[in-house]
Design a protein that fits this description.
mainly alpha, Hypothetical Protein Ta1238, Chain: A, about 5% strand, elongated, transferase, nucleotide-binding
């Protein structure tokens, strides 16, 4: 692949606009830019998660997810273009089934806590949900395929499951919510 970025500081955004992949310019507070930014932030948080000790196979899965998020960001930056394939959603479904199958059934709510890897996976989950909301909002204004929304929805579910998997490394467990209301009703 040839060099694509020749200059980082172009100063073309000094007027409060940014360029899209189709060479149009939009305001930096445009819904499309919010969606692209949330996907970029999610990808960065996954990069932080990759710095942690992870269960076998999880790092490879997360690197593939980073590539797919780059595809998603590219698709969002070029209105009407398709980069994220439906197969990427199916891959998340497979990963969800595999990792969820290793976990005990949830019988109580859990807190977004535990070890560092699990806690960072929960941050990824919440940023994925925000990115999904941004994509939904954009889809109300502009035509979008279903795949980006579905991918982010599945990814947030997977990050929840991976947080639980990470909490079980080295014999750990989830951090359960202690609800006074639930305790009174038992």
């Amino acid at each position: 692949m040839g060099k694509r970025l020749t200059q980082i500081a172009t100063r073309t955004g000094d007027d409060g606009t940014t360029g899209l992949g189709d060479n149009t310019r939009v305001s930096k507070d445009h819904l499309r830019v919010h969606a692209m930014g949330d996907v970029d932030e999610l990808n960065s948080h996954i990069g932080v998660l990759l710095c942690e000790q992870l269960p076998a196979g999880v790092a490879d899965l997360l690197v593939e997810i980073q590539h797919q998020l780059f595809n998603l960001g590219g698709e969002l930056s070029i209105p009407g273009f398709e980069l994220l394939k439906a197969e990427a959603v199916l891959a998340l479904d497979e990963a969800l089934a595999h990792h969820n199958g290793t976990l005990p059934r949830l019988e109580e709510f859990i807190l977004p806590a535990g070890n560092r890897a699990a806690s960072q996976a929960h941050v990824c989950r919440t940023v994925a949900r925000r990115a999904e909301r941004a994509v939904v909002a954009l889809g109300k204004e502009a035509p979008l395929r279903d795949t980006p929304r579905q991918y982010l929805n599945r990814l947030s579910d997977l990050m929840f499951v991976l947080a639980r998997v990470c909490n079980r490394m080295n014999g750990g467990d989830d951090v359960y919510w202690k609800s006074e209301r639930l305790a009174r009703n038992q």
